[in-house]
């Protein structure tokens, strides 16, 4: 059985074939043509297997708690959702920051590590309340419960566990790029799309890439309140927890590696794409490989203000970055209010259409 050898178009990556009429290689996708001799050397590069990722980490992070530190700390467990948080011995904790139900105290510290770093809270509860008010301001369809001061007072300050990944990386990224040109004459409009292959490779460093270490905390919520300024991080001391709660990590650093790798790879692709000039209309990554060196992880606590409110059987979680003040969270819609607004909008649109028709008739157009 004969083997079929496939040649790739250097411009768009599509399969090219020999065109007997022109005695050249032709791409049926972008209509590029190539002399057979011009493809010598390029074919080896195009058909070479793409480099593979090498994303290995030295995952030494966190120390064991000392006996004195254990005496100063308390563990609180929610009997409803199972959330486990920690706080200083003097911390008052009566309700779960995740679901609002009562929590109980225990002293089980075995099996998890002490944080390496902590970013202390810079913004107080008053700032968090103002952040929430700004977040809901002007929302016409918001249920009344979210405008009630009693629910604003349920905001709690919490240190959220993060695994931080630092590494040097070599990235090799290939892109499919296009340039689009349009013009017209007296009969037709024309669009010409040219296809290109672009490659970028080089070194790039990543410092303290954060991955949320709590399964109770939505990853998209925590990523939305980024970035945190790690330059303000300090070595962990239990004193920073005074007056606050701290979530106990239940997602290990090994389980967070895949998320860290995906964030690093995506960021590398974006960084290298930003270096591509040439006035391309679009740039889409097609292949990328990242090799890490000097990679390691650390364990840190980052400051977050949390608010959980239940509406129609659903729990809504809001978060504010306790360092920068960035506030995020999805808002529910009051269906009755939405129905009233739809009626109002329908009436206004109807009146507008009627007014236009009346005006056109007055002008003799209709």
Short description:
The protein is an alpha+beta fold and 366 residues long. The protein is 22% helix and 35% strand.
Structural class: alpha+beta
Average pLDDT number = 76
How many whole angstroms does the radius of gyration measure?
29 Å
- Number of helical elements: 7
Low-pLDDT stretches = 1-5
Count the domains. Answer: 3
Shape by Cα distribution: flat
Element-level helix/strand string:
EEEEHHEEEEHHEEHEEHEEEH
Q: What percent strand?
A: 25-35%
Q: Whole-Å distance between the termini?
A: 75 Å
Helix content, binned percent: 10-25%
Structural notes for this entry:
- Strand 3 (24-26) and strand 4 form a beta hairpin.
- This protein has seven helices and 15 strands.
- The chain has three domains: 7-46, no CATH class; 67-166 and 202-268 and 299-333, no CATH class; 335-366.
- By secondary structure, it is of the alpha+beta class.
- The chain starts with 6 loop residues before the first strand and ends with a helix.
- 22% of the residues lie in helices and 35% in strands.
- The model is unreliable at 1-5 (pLDDT under 50).
Strand and helix map with partners:
Blueprint (H helix, E strand, L loop, with lengths): L6 E2 L6 E5 L4 E3 L6 E2 L7 H5 L20 H6 E6 L5 E5 L14 E4 L10 E2 L6 H12 L12 H4 L3 E29 L4 E24 L6 H6 L9 E2 L9 E3 L5 H21 L8 E30 L2 E8 L5 E2 L6 H28 L4
Parallel strand pairs: 8-13, 9-12
Antiparallel strand pairs: 1-2, 2-3, 3-4, 5-6, 5-7, 6-12, 8-11, 9-10, 9-13, 13-14, 14-15
